[in-house]
Amino acid sequence: DDDLETDLNKLRFRPDPDRPKELLPQYSRLCPELSHDFQELDLSSEPEEGSTASSSSSDDEAVLLNTSSFGSSRRDRRRTASHLEVCDFHSDSSILSTSPSFRTMVREARGKAPPGQRGDELDDEEDAEESHHGTMIDTLLARHGVCIPNHEPRLYRAAAAKTKSIPGFSILAFPDFWGHLPPPGHEPMAPRKPNVQRQKVFEDVQRFLNPDDIIDQVVFDLEDSSLQCPSDSLRFYSKFECGNLRKAVQVRRYEYDLILNADANCNQHMQWFYFEVSNMVPGTPYRFNVINCEKSNSQFNYGMQPVLYSVREALEGRPHWVRSGTEICYYRNHYCPARGRRRTTFYTLTFTITFKHSEDVCYLAYHYPYTYSALKANLKLLQRSVDPTKVFFQQQVLCSTLAGNSCPVVTITACPASRSWRDMHQLRNRPCIVLTCRVHPGESNASWVMKGTLEFLCSSDPVAQSLREAFIFKIIPMLNPDGVINGTNRCDLNGEDLNRQWSKPDPVLSPTIYHTKGFLYYLNSIGRTPLVFCDYHGHSRKKNVFLYGCSLKETLWQSGSSTIPKTLDSLAPAFSFNSCNYLVEKSRSSTARVVVWREMGVLRSYTMESTHNGCDQGIYKGLQTGTRELQEMGLKFCHSLLSLTKDMKALYSPRTINHIDLDHKSHNCFEDDEPPCVEQIEYSTDCPLHNGTDLDSDVNSNMARADEKEEDNDEGHRGGTLSRDSNGQSQQAIKSYLFPHLMKQTSSEKRSMCNSVSANGQIMS
Question: Compositionally biased, Basic and acidic residues: which spans (predicted)?
Fold first, then answer.
């Protein structure tokens, strides 16, 4: 993988824009602060969401995709938004017992009735039904007194009614509707029991040795709604926003194999899961096996746990997503993809859950879910929360997605102190900072970091006020709404990774990337090139939070100031400067940070990666990150931007210094990825056969078989092609296959181990 910065053959002038300059003025609407005169600011009213976008919609036909097929008439739009239903809410004692699938329902009317059969009478019935169910929601909320900051269940329900999904979801998952609070304490990484993976593999092998003990019955199929599952089995469900579970197979009484959906219009990227489970027996360990994972390693081997949400716990005042699961491991299995795919095997994620309550409904997810509807509701709440005389907050529509959902873009800055020429001039000459997020749907942790950034920038904190007075923030908090809504892991509905489309994005197939890039081109063309660009991501195979940058040398030489990563290293407990990387690799040449750096000339162009697991340094060492720590990271990123202000005194002024913690500094952690799991086991049919199948055989017996294998090879190559002294690489490969728990250590240990292999095949202790 070449470093495009230091390879002289790759150096070139900045490429020309990928579109005519005549198309750029259409993006002027996304800079309302430059044209607003603040004369007509109505201090007594709250601006409605999307008002600016709607007022300029007639001028943006070239920007917005045609969405006429998604409800062309006023009646269709009204029907989609109003046909909501909340069911299964009863008295406290029967809320859960009377309904095995306790859900908030959003039933959308579909299709058109024959002429003359839909009139005012039907509308009146629908309005009466909606009023009835609204009263039930009010009763439930009043009885249980849910109070979660920056979350309003009714507002979430209204936002979800306007969300367009490909399957036509009619159900709201309870955690998304009710809301989430971080647990009161920190959650340590899960300890790994010795030989737990070996034990799980033996249990898998027993399926073939004792097939009579296996139930092997499908109890949930996303494509078969008529499927009837046994009364004593778990009940699964995933037909809701962000949900992903394609099939559940009961293997044993308390064990289930789970199959995930691939991303839309492709057959890859199985990682994200989010589903409902009910009808459990309390106190009984249930084993879940996600059997079609693709990545060769996972943080689940290093202390990471999935997250669980209990409806009963939430109704009792503990609405928490909590890390849960024991006996967690991730290993290669014997399942192969369908024909036509590359010849490889899948990987299994296995974990055991012991549910606390009977007649409960629980939700399990790869990581803390954050839906598109949650974003829309949160933006509306933020707009209501700010003081319009102090904070300029404007939400607009960047474009429509393939499914017809709007991609929001938010402008945040400080209102001018007055309408004088000096104050207006200062406002319109503030440098821009552009932040984007959630281009990969499965990286929900990035949305929680962005939530922390948005809420901090809208707060009354003195540091936030200083930032608003110094910068204009342009934020696109969800670049891939369709992927998020439909529960994909990496791609958009067209089956493409949007973060590999930046070099030449298609305006029809990748509209959010096309118009985001166009907006950046526009800022560059009017002399307002962003001071900072940062794309928020999540990382599934590394710990801590860190940045990928472009050309550390150029950033230091041309900017003449401290870098954001170094500042973050002293501010953010979860941040690790030593994990940052400034290479511009060929494989990343079409990503956001590289294209924005190369084509727009943004020196501080970053990708911020947040772990799905936790930290191995600092005060959070050994702890898994929760939503509290992720939102804190979003806040700390804002703090680091103060180092870029022209007046550096602002960083150390009495008004702000008391609100910034400067005590953190990361420790050494230079590994690019986790080492291979010490229990890594290979039993793919693609691998060569070896004598002996006992997985419990010790190292000495493995060594003996390795020597026997070498002797067999010598017998087969008597012509002098290979000899005992001349095939060290073959010998090394055999040994690394037979005892990977010794040979596959960290990179430094691996090098020293290789150097310790002597000619007679012995390993130095």
Answer: 7-22
Cα 607 to Cα 500: distance, rounded to the nearest angstrom: 13
Residue 655 has a pLDDT of 55
What tokens does 613 get? 């697991």
Give the model's pLDDT for residue 722.
Answer: 33
Do 630 and 445 form a contact (C-beta atoms < 8 A)? yes
Q: Print the SS3 string covering 602-619.
A: CCEEEEEEEECCEECCHH
Q: Provide the angle, in degrees to the nearest 10, between the axes of the packed helices 627-640 and 462-470.
A: 50
At position 307, the amino acid (one-letter code) is: V
pLDDT given at position 662? 52
Positions annotated as catalytic residues are: 609
Query: 24 Cβ partners below 8 Å, 6+ apart?
Result: 518, 521, 522, 525
Please choose, from the candidates 150, 280, 154, the residue with its C-alpha nearest in 3D space to the C-alpha of residue 219.
280
d(C-alpha 640, C-alpha 574), whole Å:
14
> What are the residues whose beta carbons fall under 8 Å from the beta carbon of 508, sequence distance 6 or more?
65
The torsion angles phi and psi of 710, rounded to 5 degrees, stand at: -65, -45
Among residues 662, 648, 654, which one has the least CA distance to residue 470?
648
Residue 17 is given by DSSP the state P
Tokens, residue 206: 């027993």
User: What is the β-pairing status of strands 532-539 and 432-437?
Assistant: parallel
The rounded mean pLDDT for the chain is 78
pLDDT tens, residue by residue, 20-45: 999 999 999 999 999 887 864 444 34
